[in-house]
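Appendix B: complex inputs.
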Amino acid sequence: MISAEDAMKKPVPAPDADSAALWRGLRDGVLLVQHCGDCRHVQYYQQGMCRHCGSESLSHRAASGRGRVHSFSVVHRAPGPAFKADVPYAVLLVDLEEGPRMISTYIGGKPEDVTFDMDVVLVCEPIDDSTTLPRFRRA
Amino acid sequence: MSDNTLRGKVAVIGIGMSPVGKVPGKSPLWLAADAARKALADAGLDKRDVDGVLSCHAFASPFHRFSVAFSEYLGIQPTFSNTLQVSGATAATMFNIGAAAIHGGLAKVVLVVASDSLMTGLTPDLALRSLTESRDQQYEMPFGIPVANTFAMTAHRHMKEFGTTAEQLAEVAVTQRRHASRTPGAQQTAPITVDDVLNSGWVTTPYHKLDCSLISDGGAAFILTSAEHAKELGVAKPVYILGGGECYTHEHIFLMPSLTTTGAVESSRRAYEMAGYGPRDMHTAGVYDCFTGTVIMMLEDLGFCPKGEGGRFVADGQMTYGGQIPSNTHGGLLSFAHSGMPGSLFHFHEVIAQLRGQCGERQVPGAELGLVHSLGAGFATNATTILGTENTL
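Resulting structure:
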């Protein structure tokens, strides 16, 4: 059961063994995606093996930060009290130039300006001393 | 179809439902037990006849092992039990797994039961927050992504790719509200128009409030046993499980292979193959309807109309009486009740009642074959069950 007090706090990502590099990279201002040395698959969702071929020869490389909006939805009813002050905000599914799709939110403009296939660029936005979130603005 | 499938080997011999909608002062365990005693009475069985229990977690209940806590509450000691969790798809998996357990000899009489009190057992904000807890805590939740939003992005993309309109989405809600107006006990029965839906305020685009399912209290229960045992008991109108199928395509919405074609294609293909029937053979359907656009996409993926045609199909009246596949004739999650994971059990209750010919003024004439499709977690989970009368074996 969730207490009313917990519901007031925004969730902060707790990096794990699979994802530590991603969150460290974001603090340094880069979005690290995993490139498979064997099959060339590129993945955003961080894991200890390639989702395509199972290889563990993965290397982290900084993504260009350029992407395109595949779909989006503007949130008017917040998922709990912690996000109430932020509405309306646009949630984006962004196709990165390197291939992977990721989920994020739009900043630097009005949510109603977001369109399908809009070109966007990564913005690394610190939300506290230890966490930086990858968001996107219009290119 | 091979002989060793569960097709026709297992029958539903009892159905029951607690009060639904706003049911204050009743715990999820009480709602489940109330539904269970009604299902047992409907089957003409005693609780001591039950040796298997399948259930799912209730957000308003502290019990992780809900099926075990439920058995203690009802005062039984089953020899087969589990608390399943594949979000909204859990309902159909309970039927598929219950049937497999009976067919495989793990249990003789399985009680499928689930309930929750999302309306009065939790505050609205906490209810919503409970639903969002199932999203990824690193990649999704820090951005404030409600589960509604993942479904909304699929519908939005469907509009972009196929020209599906907001009015067509709204038509799903309007149709199902009309259905609910004839269902005793439904939570929302006042007629609505397309304009009412479009003017009901945004939740997450393209969804307005009336494009979204309700938040409810309530539970439902079912008694499953072997076809042979159903005969021994002299059950008047057994409804048989003819086919089941599931498909799990992703966990994260950003890894969904296509936002507009879902795992329902494969789960239903498997269910149809086992049943030996196709979509055109179905007389009625329970189509998971957490949102209006979900129904449109499912009518396509379950094979009732071609991909991209779902909006027009609904607007043409094909999902209601006189159309190709009268669906959610009780009103569905949008108008009858939506108590979280158990919500899709109400679709089962309705389709089984239709196949028994017990739906009164809601009855689909000559209904002998029905399909229920349950899904959840931004289309991550899909499960289909096909049911039929004795004539369809």
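The longest helix of chain B spans residues 28-43.
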